[in-house]
């Protein structure tokens, strides 16, 4: 059985995962209308769906443990970006925020001696290591590319397989 404190913190994480999904969906929609960003568009759509799956995993866990998962109302995400580089900088900032939130949840579970939830959250800890690595790699590549259109072309092509590595 989840404590009230852990249930509320998990529901806060449900909100964060839902917001992530919405933010990446907005990035995908923006990228889709930019010329030549088919790979980036697919990348953001995939990541939106992945974050949605993270949210659903939390919802199921909360309910299975005798809690009540709350489907959150969401704020409007940022819809447009001045550049692809800015969109990926926002992705990195967002992933760091999610990692911090997961770490706070893990800490709370240890304080509450909720070892089952602590164990459940280890999947998210490992997932965030991968998410941060991928976001950092994308940002590093975009930094190297700068304003080089041929580099951007290669980035767009390569990003379709980057998260599969």
From TrEMBL:
Binding residues for Fe cation: 17, 51, 54, 95, 128
Protein name as catalogued: Ferritin
GO cellular component terms, semicolon-separated: cytoplasm
Cited Gene3D superfamilies: 1.20.1260.10
BP GO terms, sorted: intracellular iron ion homeostasis; iron ion transport
Catalysed reactions, as listed in the record: 4 Fe(2+) + O2 + 6 H2O = 4 iron(III) oxide-hydroxide + 12 H(+)
Record has Coiled coil as a keyword: no
GO MF term set: ferric iron binding; ferrous iron binding; identical protein binding; oxidoreductase activity
Function comment: May alleviate iron toxicity in the presence of oxygen. Iron-storage protein.
Gene this chain is encoded by: ftnB
EC annotation from Swiss-Prot or TrEMBL: 1.16.3.2
Cellular localization per UniProt: Cytoplasm
InterPro entries in UniProt: Ferritin, Ferritin-like, Ferritin-like_diiron, Ferritin-like_SF, Ferritin_DPS_dom, Ferritin_prok
Family: Belongs to the ferritin family. Prokaryotic subfamily.
Stretches assigned to the Ferritin-like diiron domain: 1-146
Main location: cytoplasm
Top-rank taxon, per record: Bacteria
Pfam families: Ferritin (PF00210)
This protein's UniProt keywords: Cytoplasm, Iron, Iron storage, Metal-binding, Oxidoreductase
Signal peptide boundaries: none
Enzyme's top EC category: oxidoreductase
């Amino acid at each position: 059985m989840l404590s009230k404190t852990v249930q509320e913190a998990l529901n806060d994480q449900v909100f964060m995962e839902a917001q992530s999904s919405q933010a990446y969906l907005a990035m995908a929609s923006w990228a889709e209308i930019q010329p030549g960003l088919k790979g980036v568009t697919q990348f953001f759509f995939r990541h939106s769906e992945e974050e949605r799956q993270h949210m659903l995993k939390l919802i199921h866990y909360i309910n299975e443990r005798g809690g009540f998962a709350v489907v959150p109302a969401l704020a409007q995400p940022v819809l447009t970006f001045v550049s692809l580089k800015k969109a990926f900088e926002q992705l990195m900032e967002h992933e760091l925020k999610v990692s911090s939130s997961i770490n706070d949840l893990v800490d709370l579970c240890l304080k509450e001696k909720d070892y089952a939830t602590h164990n459940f959250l280890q999947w998210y800890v490992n997932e965030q290591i991968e998410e941060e690595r991928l976001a950092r790699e994308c940002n590093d590549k975009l930094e190297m590319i700068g304003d080089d259109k041929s580099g951007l072309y290669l980035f767009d092509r390569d990003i379709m397989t980057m998260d599969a590595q």
